[in-house]
Amino acid sequence: MTHLEARPGEVELDFDPATETDASVMFIGHIRSPWKRGDCPANIRKARERTCEAWIELDPRLVQGLNGLKVGQQIVLIYWMHETRRDIIVQSPRHSEGTRGVFSLRSPLRPNPLAMSSVRITSLDPDRGNVGIDAIDCFDGTPLVDIKPWVPTIDLLPDE
Amino acid sequence: MTHLEARPGEVELDFDPATETDASVMFIGHIRSPWKRGDCPANIRKARERTCEAWIELDPRLVQGLNGLKVGQQIVLIYWMHETRRDIIVQSPRHSEGTRGVFSLRSPLRPNPLAMSSVRITSLDPDRGNVGIDAIDCFDGTPLVDIKPWVPTIDLLPDE
Question: Tell me, what's the ipTM?
Fold first, then answer.
């Protein structure tokens, strides 16, 4: 996931999106996981196939924001893949032939390194700001930027 | 959606998350919609109930990132609700009784004002960086921060 050198066929931007400061993000907490570099599942599906104790440690100043969440509820986490390059606009994924634009991929290397997964709340300690989750696919200590309830009428397309 | 004054029962943080600059976001483009303040659907479901021509105007430097996307495909947009307050941690939504923590709500007012909707691509002009979408629930000109393909194994929980 370091991906320090572009692979054959990949296209690098001639600027680094990290230097474009249109707005600022606050890290609202961090994700705790068993995963370190070289041993991290490639996605949440693969993370679920392995034993995985994972939880959120929310910034203590924000714990009131958890009111209303419940154990068993499905939530969406948005997290910040802070150790990745942001300037590879066309990529050559390991899992498929050829190259594709970053917006057609779930790669963590993107202009804004936002990752997003649907998970289930397995435990909740609002006073300490700890939220247990059923699985996650990022390094221990990855910064968290948002928690949202999963809402079918927003997150699924209507039947056509 | 301006929500300049906290409502009864709401809780304001004693700091403004906008001043916590843990990382910087690049606006990768803007969302074009018919909606202006006072006439914006409250969510994507309500937006779909109204005639809505909507599209993305991507930053011209990033158009190669669209390679691989297709008309008809379901994508997730992450956009930046740049005109909202970020410091109301417990909120009193108009649509329900009582107050709830922001992380249990899809409110645009949140420490990081990220909004997220699932939409379908209706047209694609990659050279110009224009992507037509079936509906959207934000003001004309709202900054866009990410486009991701919707992937069932990431965005849906497995059957249990």
Answer: 0.94
